[in-house]
From TrEMBL:
Residues 303-433 form the ATP-dependent DNA ligase family profile domain. CDD domains: Adenylation_DNA_ligase_Bac1 (cd07897), OBF_DNA_ligase_Arch_LigB (cd07972). This is DNA ligase (ATP). SUPFAM superfamilies: ATP-dependent DNA ligase DNA-binding domain (SSF117018), DNA ligase/mRNA capping enzyme, catalytic domain (SSF56091), Nucleic acid-binding proteins (SSF50249). It is an enzyme of class 6 (ligase). Its EC number is 6.5.1.1. GO terms for biological process: cell division; DNA recombination; DNA repair; DNA replication. InterPro entries: ATP-dep_DNA_ligase, ATP_dep_DNA_lig_pp_1105_fam, DNA_ligase_ATP-dep_C, DNA_ligase_ATP-dep_cent, DNA_ligase_ATP-dep_CS, DNA_ligase_ATP-dep_N, DNA_ligase_N_sf, NA-bd_OB-fold. It catalyses: ATP + (deoxyribonucleotide)n-3'-hydroxyl + 5'-phospho-(deoxyribonucleotide)m = (deoxyribonucleotide)n+m + AMP + diphosphate. Keywords: ATP-binding, Cell cycle, Cell division, DNA damage, DNA recombination, DNA repair, DNA replication, Ligase, Magnesium, Metal-binding, Nucleotide-binding. One of its GO terms (molecular function) is DNA binding.
Length: 526
């Protein structure tokens, strides 16, 4: 655990990618293979389920320290993170537990079948044998909140540098179904004996935002244009009569789309299709908020299946009858995909529309009107391009329309975590609804460090009420908020939900009387 704690500390204290890669390699050179497997599992989201109630952890810490509840709550409000607060208030350890990461993880996993008394004994003994940083990691691991600011790309680059393997091989190996207690580090790194169950997806080919004039791309005849849809990018896999649906977020979502699974099962052969999963009704693509109602549900009612039907707009064919097609140009892959869909004619699976154009000016007009079909803009793909692993500049571009923007006022603020735990960085904004203010969105990004410090000072001086870590502030600071989409929502007080809201700029030139009105904002919904 000590080496792992040192790694986390090194990663948290730098924002430089190369420094993070060096820290990961240093850890891999020191750690035993069992710990390396758990390291990869934790960094790729394969955390064990929470087996200890965090409310109990708080109660046990209060028993040990004798702190009154109000003081703990004040400390929690200031720190903003439960695991960190517990680590800070606990007394220094009386012992030193020298145990590997893999041993800790197996102990945490096995807590599932323990009694509350046994769980308490384990937690208290652990706290008494770990220093502050180790305790913090332990609290997050056992409480199910362990997250680390390292991208998949950075992790893959570090593993590539350490092992000498190709990044595509490593990415392919790590994305499938595997359990840390059932695979060795050697098998994982060399991609041996991983995913023997037909479910393995390919690394997704990703696009860069287009930030130059389309004329710079050259001859329009060399490019394929499609609509960019706001759904769930997925790979639909059919191998040996089994069907798997993977999201781009490396989540197996097969059970969430039974109608698609059933259609694919009834098809013939083996293939891997890349496409967009969308809510489509009466040939119209629905708002993403409608699709969101279908996600992460344990049961899908017949009513929901009827009200929010699902279709896949197929972009690409990556594999056919065990043949990897990714090195073929997309023009060839698309032709094979079109033939496959034509022969099978699967319900709910359609070929993504190819947009015909002769000049870039024509395409720009189509892009400007893409919201009329609930699209985010266009995708441009060079017809000769292979299917890359990850991003490669020059072959695929996403040409999105400009985001919506509104002016809203800050009404709630909460401190951040980690390096930002001393500042108010999490904001809630409101707009006018007749003579009242109604919350419209939360945003966490878009301000400079200097602006964050300014806002924090304002919140400290102008806080009206506090609810745990949240502060109600005087409605005075106006910000321009950008977002990709908007739809009606019963889960929000305003009745609408914004897609990917973020702060564009601090409107110091505007007052609260000039913020936008809710009824006008609703008119943006298609």
């Amino acid at each position: 655990m000590r080496h792992f704690a040192n790694l986390i500390n090194a990663l948290e204290t730098t924002n430089k990618t190369n420094a993070k890669i060096d820290a990961i390699i240093d850890y891999l050179e020191r750690a035993p293979d069992e710990d390396k497997v758990w390291f990869i599992a934790l960094f790729t989201g394969k955390r064990p389920k929470r087996n200890v109630n965090t409310n109990y952890m708080k109660e046990w810490a209060l028993e040990i320290t004798g702190l009154p509840l109000w003081l703990f709550q004040e400390s929690y409000s200031s720190v903003g993170d439960l695991g960190e607060t517990l680590s800070l208030i606990l007394p220094p350890p009386q012992e030193k537990i020298e145990q590997s990461l893999s041993q800790w993880m197996m102990d945490i996993v096995h807590l599932k079948d323990k009694t509350e008394a046994e769980k308490k004994e384990f937690v208290l003994n652990s706290w008494n044998g770990l220093d502050y940083t180790e305790r913090l990691i332990f609290n997050k691991l056992i409480g199910g909140s362990f997250r680390i600011g390292v991208s998949d790309k950075t992790l893959i680059n570090a593993l590539t540098k350490f092992s000498g393997q190709e990044s595509s091989t490593l990415m392919h190996s790590l994305m499938g179904k595997w359990l840390p207690d059932e695979v060795s580090f050697k098998e994982l790194i060399s991609a041996e004996n991983i995913n023997p169950d037909n479910s393995k997806p390919y690394p997704f080919c990703l696009a860069y935002p287009l930030e130059k004039e389309t004329e710079a791309l050259g001859n329009p005849d060399e490019w394929l244009a499609e609509y960019k849809w706001d759904g769930i990018r997925g790979q639909i896999i059919r191998r040996n009569d089994e069907v798997f649906i993977w999201s781009r977020g490396e989540e197996l979502v097969t059970e969430q789309f039974p109608e698609i699974t059933e259609v694919i099962k009834n098809m013939k052969g083996n293939f891997v299709v890349d496409g967009e999963i969308l809510a489509v009704k009466e040939n119209k693509v629905l708002n993403f908020n409608e699709l969101q109602k279908r996600l992460n549900r344990k049961t899908l009612t017949k009513k929901m299946l009827e009200e929010i039907p699902i279709e896949v707009f197929a972009y690409d064919l990556l594999e056919l009858e065990d043949n990897d097609l990714r090195e073929k140009p997309i023009s060839a892959r698309r032709a094979i995909l079109e033939e496959l869909l034509l022969n099978e004619n699967p319900k709910n699976i359609k070929l993504s529309q190819s947009i015909n154009f002769d000049k870039w000016e024509e395409l720009n007009d189509i892009r400007e009107n893409s919201r009329s079909v609930n699209s985010e803009g266009l995708m441009l793909k060079q017809k000769s391009s292979p299917y890359h692993s990850g991003r490669k500049k020059g072959d695929w571009w996403k040409w999105k329309i400009n985001p919506f923007t509104i002016d809203a006022v800050l009404i709630y603020a909460q401190k951040g975590s980690g390096r930002r735990s001393a500042y108010y960085t999490d904001y809630t904004f409101a707009v006018k609804n007749e003579d009242k203010l109604v919350t419209i969105a939360k945003a966490y990004s878009g301000l400079t460090d200097k602006e964050i410090m300014e806002v924090s000072k304002f919140v400290t001086k102008n806080a009206i009420e506090k609810f745990g870590p949240v502060r109600t502030v005087k409605a005075e600071l106006v910000f321009e908020i950008a977002f990709e989409g908007i739809g009606f929502s019963n889960r929000h007080k305003s009745g609408v939900a914004l897609r990917f809201p973020r702060i564009v700029r601090w409107r110091k030139d505007k007052t609260v009387d000039e913020i936008d009105n809710l009824e006008e904002i609703k008119k943006l919904i298609q």
